[in-house]
Every structure is written in structure tokens, then in C-alpha cells.
Design goal:
Strand order of the largest sheet: 3-12-15-14-13-16
Number of strands: 30
Shape: elongated
Distance between the termini: 86 Å
Helix content: 10-25%
Low-confidence stretches: none
Strand content: 35-45%
Length: 461
């Protein structure tokens, strides 16, 4: 018999091996989870890099012409004829108009013109010009101009009818009883329309004068009959005239230092220099431009579209969302001193600590702005009611007066630091600020895109 084999198996326990790969994976996984958590829970601040830029100013406005004007009234009722062209210079004793009480003279004049009104070459020119200007400037928003166009066309037609009357005035005036001819009482530019703004000046105007639809031209020359007391004609008695233009506050501040401004008149694209003056009235800003000539060219106009020919503004360009404000303490200049290990600007600061003890120490302060006798300062531990002491004196000054300055949050160092800006120009989206401003920012600095999303000294993730 074969001997049975011993099938007993002895098992050995192996020591588990340490898997470095799994540990590394776990570390990386935990790190990723932590960063994802941090990303979704931390406040994120969008960064903007400061660049050099330009903003082209939109300087097209509508202004109101104000000038020396006199309205003369009709003395007799009847049929009226005019003898001088609209917006023409007249001298004393020049024939302006006549009134025929019976209508005989008026009928004779219109009879002589029957069929001959546009027989001469160029007779249509003024009508074509009036129609072309209306078509080119038409806007649905200004539909009231349709009525102005109607009055202008009627005036041109009546002026054409009366153009031959002056040469026949001597022959025909004696054929009708009740005929009265009137001459200019003083020299000037004659105008045959009124709008109710003849007595408005830069001293007595109100904001309603800028509503062109409420002050449409009332044509005088388009009438056949008049009553005593009606406006007969208007004289512009001075070549000097003002253009009153409503503007924004920022532009007003820019133009306040200007004494003369060049403008382009959109009506004919001509240019002229006007003496300028900025006016603030009832919290609104206006530009007053005074011209010494061109009055006759715009004698028939009350409202003018113009473009201010100003240079574009260059500087550091930042988005408006980056702008913020900060309050600064104002102190007399003689209270600022130097001290500390680095001999920096600061003040001798006196305050009470938590235990009620009076502490006197040098506290560094940053000077952000200055006036003739004051510094704008900021620094740690300054509070309203704290005292500062004048160097080499016992004179005390209480920190109380503050003023806000505009600025941005600089985040070059990883945390938000307020920096002052000097605004040169601003539109709806961007601001141009001055370069080289003390306590300011420089080209390629990083700033917070949205100042409302961050606080000063906050760490940027």
C-alpha cells in the first residue's frame, strides 16, 4: 500500500505593501476638492488693466438764438404788401410795407403779377432751397416743422408777389384812397416772422424756450389782411447775437476755463469763433456763445444745430464701474510732521486706548490732496473726534472735517488699495483720467473692474 501523502498546507501571512500611488492620488483629489470649494465660496473680483485711451466727445447740440429784436405793429387795418426781402438789411426810411384799407391797390398788384410770377430765370431758386432744406432735415420726432415749412413756402410766394410792387409804388399809390406806406424807423435786419421769444435774453430766459414745438415761427408775410395792432414786421437791430446751449455738468467744468470756442453750424457747415461763457442756473448748466457777425445769415432762425469743435480727450482710460469714493480727513498744513524709522509723513496722534489711558504717538499718514492751507490725509486708527497735536506746540486740532475724493481700488499687491483719480472727461461707459496724479494710478496698473464688489484692504483671491 502506498503511504498517504501529507496534504496539510501551512499558510504564511504576508505584510501588506504601502501603495504610494494611491496616497498621491488622494492628496491630489483632496487638493482639487479644496480648490473647487474655495473657488465657489470665495469672492471673485474682475481685474482691469489700465490703458492709454481717447474718448471722442459728442458735442452736437441745439441752441437758441437770443438777440436785440423789436416788433413793430400795424397802424391801420386792411390789405398788406411788403417791399423788402425777408432777412435783408434796411436803412432808415426804406419802404417796408404798405396797408391798403380798400383793397384796390392790393388787387392791382396781384393783377399785374398774374402769370408773371415765375417768368424770370432763377425765380424758383428760393422755393427750391426752402423745400430742399426741409427734406434734408426732416425727422418724425420734429413733425411740427411741417408747419414751419408751410409758413416758409407761403412767405416765399407772397414775397415774390410783392417784389414788383416797390417799383410801381409811386405810380399806384395815388390810385387808391386809404393807402398807407410805412418805412423803417431805424436801420437793421428786417424779419417777417415772430415766435414770442423776441424779448428773451440770457438774463431772463426759462427752460421752456428750448421746446421748439412750443415756439413755432408765425409768418407775417403770408397774410393778405391785417388788423390794427397786429405785428407788422421785426427789426434785428444789432449784429451781435448770443446762442444759448444747454450742456451737462462735466462738459461745463471743462469749458469753464475757455474764453473762445469754435463751432460748426450744421445748417450750412460754416464755422465761426464765439466768445464763451458758462452759466449755472437752477442747477442746470448752459453755454453762452456770443458772435459779432453772421447775424444776417441766421436772421430767419431761432434754433440752430451746432457742433463744438473741441479736441478729443486723451489720458488713462478706465471703465466707470471702477470708480468709487472715499472720505479723507482735512487738517491744517502746519500739523503735518515727519517721523518713524523711515522719516515718513504723519501726525502726533492723541487718543484714548481701551483702558482709558491717553496715548500720544506718531502715526503715519498719507497725503492724498492739498489746498492752499489744508491737507487731505488718510491712515490707520484715525477716527472722528481724535486729536492731533501741532509739532513743537501744545496746540490741538480735532479730526472732524472730511471730504470725499473719487478714485479706484488698485490691486497690484493682491489686496485693494484706494488710489485717487482726476477725471478729465466721461461718457456713459468710460472715464479718461489724468496721468501723473499724486497718490494715483499709472499705465498698466491692475484695478478692480467693479468697485462695488470689493472693500479697501480686502485680499484678492
Amino acid at each position: 500500500m502506498e503511504r498517504k501523502k501529507n496534504k496539510k498546507i501551512v499558510k504564511f501571512h504576508r505584510t501588506p505593501r504601502f501603495n504610494v500611488g494611491i496616497l498621491v492620488f488622494l492628496i491630489i483629489f483632496i487638493y482639487m476638492v479644496y480648490n473647487i470649494f474655495q473657488y465657489f465660496t470665495a469672492k471673485h473680483v474682475a481685474v482691469y488693466e489700465v490703458t492709454q485711451g481717447t474718448i471722442t466727445q459728442e458735442n452736437t447740440f441745439t441752441g437758441v438764438i437770443l438777440r436785440e429784436e423789436k416788433v413793430f405793429t400795424v397802424e391801420k387795418s386792411g390789405y398788406i404788401n411788403y417791399y423788402s426781402r425777408d432777412a435783408a438789411k434796411v436803412s432808415v426810411n426804406s419802404y417796408i410795407y404798405s396797408v391798403d384799407e380798400t383793397g384796390d391797390f392790393y388787387k392791382e398788384i396781384t393783377k399785374q403779377n398774374d402769370g408773371q410770377l415765375f417768368s424770370e430765370k432763377g425765380s424758383y431758386d428760393e422755393l427750391e432751397k426752402t423745400a430742399a432744406n426741409y427734406v434734408l432735415n426732416y425727422s418724425d420726432k420734429d413733425f411740427y416743422q411741417v408747419y414751419t415749412f408751410e409758413y416758409d413756402m407761403e412767405a416765399e410766394l407772397m414775397e415774390a408777389i410783392s417784389s414788383n410792387a416797390l417799383s410801381n409804388l409811386g405810380n399806384l399809390s395815388g390810385t387808391s384812397s386809404g393807402f398807407h406806406a410805412y418805412t423803417a424807423q431805424e436801420p437793421g435786419i428786417v424779419s417777417y416772422h415772430v415766435d414770442g421769444l423776441e424779448n428773451v435774453t440770457t438774463d431772463n430766459f426759462t427752460t421752456d424756450i428750448f421746446d421748439a414745438s412750443a415756439h413755432m415761427k408765425n409768418s407775417l408775410i403770408a397774410r393778405e389782411q391785417v388788423s390794427a395792432g397786429d405785428p407788422a414786421y421785426k427789426l434785428i437791430t444789432s449784429e451781435t447775437w448770443d446762442l444759448l446751449v444747454p450742456i451737462g455738468e462735466n462738459l461745463a467744468k471743462d469749458l469753464a476755463k475757455e474764453s473762445n470756442i469754435q463751432v460748426q453750424f450744421k445748417k450750412d457747415n460754416s464755422t465761426a469763433w464765439g466768445a464763451s461763457h458758462v452759466l449755472n442756473q437752477d442747477n442746470a448748466w448752459y453755454l453762452i456763445l456770443t458772435f459779432q457777425n453772421s447775424g444776417i445769415r441766421f436772421a430767419a432762425d431761432r434754433y440752430l444745430d451746432i457742433k463744438l469743435l473741441l479736441s478729443d480727450t486723451n489720458g488713462l482710460k478706465i471703465p466707470n464701474t471702477a470708480l468709487t469714493e472715499k472720505e479723507f480727513f482735512l487738517i491744517p498744513k502746519e500739523f503735518l510732521t515727519k517721523g518713524g524709522d523711515d522719516n515718513v509723513n504723519g501726525v502726533m496722534h492723541q487718543y484714548m486706548d481701551n483702558e482709558g489711558k491717553t496715548i500720544m504717538e506718531f502715526t503715519p499718514a498719507s497725503v492724498v490732496e492739498e489746498t492752499e492751507d489744508r491737507y487731505y490725509i488718510t491712515g490707520d486708527n484715525f477716527e472722528k473726534g481724535n486729536s492731533i497735536i501741532k509739532p513743537d506746540s501744545n496746540e490741538e486740532f480735532i479730526l472732524s472735517e472730511t471730504e470725499k475724493l473719487q478714485g479706484v481700488y488698485n490691486i497690484n499687491k493682491g489686496y485693494a488699495v484706494f488710489r485717487k483719480v482726476k477725471i478729465l472727461f466721461q461718457n456713459q461707459e468710460y472715464t479718461i483720467i489724468d496721468t501723473g496724479t499724486s497718490y494715483g494710478i499709472s499705465l498698466y496698473d491692475h484695478i478692480a473692474l467693479d468697485s462695488s464688489a470689493i472693500s479697501e484692504n480686502e485680499i484678492i483671491h
